[in-house]
Amino acid sequence: MNNPLPVGRLAEHLESLSRECAWLAIVAATTVIAAANFFFPAIGFAPLYMPVICGACWALGAREGYFLAIVAAFLTAVPALHAPPNLSLALLAVRVAPFLSIAAIVTSFRRSYGRELFHAHRDRMTGTLNKEVFHRRCAQAIEGARHTRRTLLLVLLDLDDFKTANDRAGHVAGDEILRAFAKGVSAIMRREDLIGRIGGDEFALLVRVPTIAEGQGIARDLHARLSAVLATSPHPVTCSMGALLIPPDTPRTISELIHAADQTMYRAKRGGKNAVEIDKAGEPGIAAIAPIAAQRWEGCA
After folding, report:
1. How confident is the model at residue 295 (pLDDT cuts 50, 70, 90)?
2. Which of 9, 104, 121, 203 would you label with 220, given CA atoms 20 to 30 Å apart?
3. Residues 257, 245: Cα–Cα separation, whole Å
C-alpha cells in the first residue's frame, strides 16, 4: 500500500526490514543511547529509548517490545545503582511503568493496523487478494523472477456457467460457490503463491515453477485439482483455465501478461469449457504443440 503520509511510509519501511536487520538496528540504537546516558547522566538521554521501543514493537512484535522496555528501564536506572536499594528499586519501577505503557499502546495500535491492512488487501467475499493488490504483487514477483532467473506460471480461472447457477439457486448459492472455491484453492496453494479475485467469478494465480516443460504438467495438474475442489462445492460447477508460462527474460508488463493469460482462458471456454489451455509468453499454442503427461504439483495448506 503506497501511503503518502510520513507515518505510513515509516510503517511500510519498518515492515520491509527483515527481523535480522530490525534486531541489528535496535541493538545498535540501544547501545548508543545506553553509552550516552552512562557517560553524560546529567543530560538525560532516557527519553530516546521510547522511539526504539516503538520500533521494536512494530517491527518485531509485542514480546520483543516488552523485553526491550524492561531492558531500557534497567539501563536508565544504572547510574543510580549506588543509591540505597529501596531508592534504586523505586527508580526502576518509575522507569518501567512508562516504557511498558508505551510498548502496550504501540502493540495495540500495531495489531489494529495489521487488521486494517489485511482487510484493505483482501476481497471481502472470498478472503483472497483483491484485484489491485494482486496486480501489484504480481508485478513485483515478475520483476524479482527476472533477477533470480525463475520461471512463473500465471493462471486465470473463470467458473463455467456460474451465472446460470447463480440465477437458478440464488445469489446466496453463488456466494457459497465463490467462498468454497477460494477456500479450496487456498488449501492447495503454497504460501509463496499468489491468489486473487479479479472479477465476479474470475480468479488469478501466480505460481513459481521449476522449468517451462514442468510448468505445463503443473498447469494441467492444477486444473484437475481445482476442478475437484469445485466438484465438492454445495453447487458444483466447472472452470476454464488459461495458463501462461513466463520465462525470466520475458520483456512484458503485468498488464500485457494478464491480458495474454485472459485470452488463453477464453480460448479454453470457446473450446468447450471445463478445460485448460497453456501458452508461453510470446509464443502462443504450447498445449496444442507439445502435450505432455501431467506432473504432480505439490501444494501445501
Report:
1. very low
2. 121
3. 10
210, exposed or middle or buried, with CB in 10 Å at 0-12, 13-18, 19+? Answer: exposed
Q: What is the pTM of this model?
A: 0.66
Cell numbers at residue 106, please?
504501540
Q: What is the mean pLDDT of residues 221-225?
A: 92
Write phi, then psi, for 196 (nearest 5 degrees).
Answer: -140, 150
Long-range contacts formed by 63-70: CB under 8 A, 24+ apart? 65/103, 65/106, 65/107, 66/100, 66/103, 66/104, 66/107, 68/26, 68/30, 68/103, 69/96, 69/99, 69/100, 69/102, 69/103, 70/96, 70/99, 70/100
Give me the pLDDT at residue 32, please: 93
| Rounded (10°) angle between helices 62-77 and 85-121 | 150
Local structure of residue 126 (DSSP, 8 states): T
Residue whose C-alpha is closest to residue 238's, from 125, 156, 162, 155: 162
Residues 6+ apart with CB under 8 A from 212: 151, 245, 247, 280
Q: What are the CA-CA distances from residue 106 to residues 33, 62, 93 (Å)? A: 21, 9, 20
Q: In which element (H, E) is residue 40 found?
A: none
Task: Please state, for a pLDDT cut of 90, what percent of the chain lies above it.
Answer: 29
pLDDT at res. 294: 37
